[in-house]
Design goal:
There is one protein chain. The chain has 348 residues and is mainly α. The protein has one domain (12-347). It contains 17 helices and no strands.
Length: 348
């Protein structure tokens, strides 16, 4: 009988994907906080030291989709969500308040926190009605592939709900970060797929040659449709560009993530990764152990760094950006541990 893909409960390949994806996101968010307020649409400092940061971030600019899918996939793997779910609800509410009142640059009524709250509520609902995971997965896949934003021309949609439903890309104040349609269905798809894997875990410990051939063929077929995300504008047009790509372009990039995740579920890949110290080191990082806390903490940190850089007049120096980036990386290793220890003492 084959061993489970991860006896310790962690899928090391998933940890690698999330680690690499998150720190690409950090580059984009830090760049936005540093320079978007001055109207820049890309990295504003011409420096060979910053070129690797920009190339890295642009190559993985779709990572927001990746980490949202992967995080809810991992939630779906868990047999019980009771304590984690309560923790996530509270965390979302706290950081929503902090984001709303502490970040002057962001005035939009809809963004990632509201999106995640809606997602958690949707998952709570589908669990309450006991919707079969296979049905949820199939329906979510179909809905993610529908360009709902094209429906906004069919009638007058109240401006109060338009940003939440489709985004608003028809006015000068364009904003389309994490609209519900179709994107709420992607974390729902992740949760459903995680549930299906949990219910059929032994079947995923191996991958047949036929299945492997299908994955390889699909991934190679996607290559001609890749690259559109690389030229994503950095500033206020970011959402209207990233969240309104044609469905085939979206899946052309995500199929590679799915392929890597599928391989990560196999025993042979898991054992190979487990034998590598650097992989185990990455798996122990806070971005993998306390992902949502790390993700929420990085927002105030990047804007704090940007505000300090502007205040001291050093925002257009490559060394400032690099120092800020790695200071935030270090802070995201320390702060979650401190918060977790304080939380544990309060519970006592």
């Amino acid at each position: 009988m084959p061993s489970r893909p991860n006896e310790s409960g962690r899928i090391l390949g998933a940890d690698l994907i999330r680690f690499v994806s998150f720190y690409a996101i950090l580059v984009f968010h830090l760049s936005y906080a540093f320079w978007a307020r001055d109207g820049h649409m890309d990295v504003a400092v011409d420096s060979r030291w910053l070129d690797p940061f920009e190339i890295y971030a642009r190559a993985l600019v779709f990572s927001g989709f990746t980490v949202v899918f992967l995080s809810f996939f991992l939630y779906g793997l868990k047999p019980s969500l009771s304590s984690k779910w309560k923790y996530l609800w509270l965390l979302l509410l706290v950081f929503l308040v902090v984001w709303t009142y502490a970040t002057e640059e962001v005035t939009d009524a809809w963004d990632i926190y509201q999106f995640l709250l809606a997602t958690v509520a949707a998952i709570a609902f589908v669990r309450w009605v006991r919707l079969p995971a296979a049905v949820l997965a199939f329906a979510s896949f179909i809905f993610v592939s529908v360009p709902f934003w094209k429906l906004e021309v069919l009638g007058q949609i109240p401006q109060a709900i338009k940003p939440a439903l489709f985004g608003n890309c028809t006015t000068l104040a364009s904003h389309a970060d994490w609209p519900l349609l179709p994107w709420i269905f992607y974390p729902l798809l992740g949760f459903a797929m995680g549930s299906l894997v949990r219910e059929n875990r032994p079947d995923f410990a191996r991958i047949s040659r036929a299945e492997l051939a299908v994955w390889i063929a699909g991934s190679l077929a996607a290559i001609p449709m890749m690259g559109a995300y690389y030229v994503t504008p950095l500033g206020t047009d970011f959402g209207c560009y990233v969240f309104r790509r044609p469905p085939l372009e979206f899946w052309a990039h995500q199929i590679w993530i799915w392929f890597l995740l599928r391989l990560s579920l196999t025993t042979v890949v898991q054992e190979s990764l487990r034998a590598r110290r650097v992989v185990k080191w990455i798996s122990r990082r806070q971005v993998n152990r306390r992902f949502f806390l790390v993700y929420f903490l990085h927002f105030p940190l990047v804007f704090l760094a940007a505000d300090l850089a502007h205040r001291f007049g050093i925002v257009y120096r490559a060394t400032t950006y690099i120092a800020a980036y790695f200071s935030i990386v270090l802070s995201l290793e320390v702060l979650p541990v401190v918060i977790a220890e304080i939380s544990a003492k309060i519970k006592r």
